[in-house]
């Protein structure tokens, strides 16, 4: 009997798993070549091809092509695949063989999630944790494959939305932001695969019974010497928040910031004009889309005046239209 060899054909590779079904006849080659490419991508770390070093793939056998009433039979119950070198991935279990009849449906989620599998497409429930626990959630699927499929390229997609914040302020002042909180964000949902290149869709997105408060605590300084000066709370390789895609109603999600301001212009002597001020603003109505990155710019004030908040700006992973005007939080 001929083993199925699962070799890398692109930047990443995914492999199969063992099974007890009928296997290829001796002397027939049944090589499966997998590839896996991460689509364009905080403080959850943003995953790209170079960073993607391990994943688990599941395969399910079906007698016919996948559909609403088609039962998924266990074929590959989960194989951990580790990157050993560029374009070289290895697994320790096996050997693995193509079935002689029917089709195989492949699904993978990274980090691994527990799939619910009966008929049609699998799904899983997901809750976004606090800022320190957030991950760049990826998924991929390949549908209705058999031994004649040739090289199989698994297109991993980002399933969440990057939500980032920047601060700007009045010229001549130095601002130090020490805390930013998001409340009212929907933190729980169900993802269902659908066989598409974007892997699937989110449904039942809601606020959980114990809602998560997403809080950044640190120290971000802005020395405002010109109107264009801004400071980002995120980093180039890590987003500030990695959250569920969702439709946000006006005034549903609140942003609360804690910051200080002092005069930095000549003759100001660096005196504080606002010390540990706490101000709040509501996000405008918007839809956070899967695999997108959105940036909000907070316009801080040097005293107890209102802080404005403008139209958000989107970026790649993929970016949306820029924020027209900054938002100003108020007490």
UniProtKB/TrEMBL annotation:
PROSITE patterns: PROKAR_LIPOPROTEIN. It comes from the Bacteria. Residues 311-331 are annotated as: Disordered. It holds the Pfam family Mfa_like_1. Signal peptide: none annotated. Gene3D superfamilies: 2.60.40.2630. InterPro entries: Mfa-like_1. This is Fimbrillin family protein. It comes from Bacteroides intestinalis DSM 17393.
